[in-house]
Design a protein that fits this description.
40% of the residues lie in helices and 15% in strands. Strands 1-2 form a two-stranded antiparallel ribbon. The C terminus is likely disordered.
């Protein structure tokens, strides 16, 4: 796996694919409940490669928007149809600690109950954050 193809980035790409499918079906906005994957999303936002990454995985640029909530995560069945069971990285915090209890609950029930504070939204290159030019003198 190359340095840019971390488990977090691979799963972010899958999440983008699932998100677009959910948008097209008119389903609820997908909830980003993984702190580890959301941290990777934040690292990628505004980088020169973000629009390309988003377009490659979602067919369009996606925005990162505030969307706070807690409850049953709506898109798990769609993910499983496309990719199989969620890997543990989905239950990992930004510091790399896996919530084994939450992962075990998912493995037992097939459902994820979690809190989230952001979601993707369809966007266009004009509204997706672009990298800022920096001049060093």
């Amino acid at each position: 796996m190359s340095p840019t193809q971390t488990p977090e980035r691979v799963e972010l790409g899958k999440f983008f694919m699932v998100s677009v499918g959910e948008f097209e079906k008119g389903h609820a906005t997908p909830e980003m409940f993984s702190a580890a994957i959301d941290a990777e999303w934040h690292r990628l936002l505004g980088s020169p490669e973000y629009v390309e990454f988003s377009s490659r995985h979602a067919g369009q640029p996606l925005e990162h928007v505030s969307s706070c909530g807690t409850g049953r995560v709506s898109w798990i069945a769609t993910y499983e149809k496309l990719f199989g069971p969620l890997p543990d990285i989905w239950f990992t915090d930004a510091d790399g600690t896996v919530n084994h209890e939450a992962a075990a609950r998912y493995r037992k029930t097939g459902e994820v109950w979690a809190a989230w504070n952001c979601s993707p939204a369809p966007g266009d290159p004009e509204t997706v954050p672009q990298p800022q030019k920096v001049t060093i003198r």
